[in-house]
């Protein structure tokens, strides 16, 4: 098998050729959180923010972002995802926890899609609530699970 690299023979950046890799079931889970003032979380939960259903819009934004990751991340393969779920959970007194699960059967993994989904969902929460809480923080975006492919399974500690 050819070495997988993002550089061609002249040292220029290129998309990795995965055509020789076997198709396998692949999955990735990423997590992150948005920390905010307790009053902001209360308004999100009550549905009283000026921009409406913050968590519903963030869920949709995360799903859409996972599907468009190759448009956002240079050299990322466009993928036919078979499943994307975004779970947003209030974590009183001051945070929303975000988890994205992305799956496909293919030749390359979906870690970037899961990480992009969490990040865009978090940015959407920030955007929808920034008028009431500019001090929000997006934290701890990380890969927590990866399965499938030659490198096998990864579980974060």
TrEMBL record:
Q: Where is the active site?
A: 127
Check the record and name the InterPro entries matching this protein.
Answer: MoaC, MoaC_bact/euk, MoaC_sf, MoCo_biosynth_MoaA/MoaC, Mopterin_CF_biosynth-C_dom
Which GO MF terms are attached to this record?
Answer: cyclic pyranopterin monophosphate synthase activity
- In what residue span(s) does the Molybdopterin cofactor biosynthesis C (MoaC) domain sit? 15-149
Q: So, what pathway does this thing act in?
A: Cofactor biosynthesis; molybdopterin biosynthesis
Q: Identify the Pfam families for this entry.
A: MoaC (PF01967)
Keywords (alphabetical) are:
Lyase, Molybdenum cofactor biosynthesis
According to its UniProt record, the EC number is 4.6.1.17
User: What domain of life does the UniProt record list for this protein's source?
Assistant: Bacteria
- Give GO terms for biological process: Mo-molybdopterin cofactor biosynthetic process
Which reaction is the catalytic activity of this chain? (8S)-3',8-cyclo-7,8-dihydroguanosine 5'-triphosphate = cyclic pyranopterin phosphate + diphosphate
Residues annotated to bind substrate: 75-77, 112-113
Top-level EC class? lyase
State the family it belongs to.
Belongs to the MoaC family.
| Subunit text | Homohexamer; trimer of dimers.
Query: What role is this protein assigned?
Result: Catalyzes the conversion of (8S)-3',8-cyclo-7,8-dihydroguanosine 5'-triphosphate to cyclic pyranopterin monophosphate (cPMP).
Q: What is this protein called?
A: Cyclic pyranopterin monophosphate synthase
Which lineage?
A: Bacteria, Pseudomonadati, Pseudomonadota, Alphaproteobacteria, Acetobacterales
Q: Which gene encodes it?
A: moaC
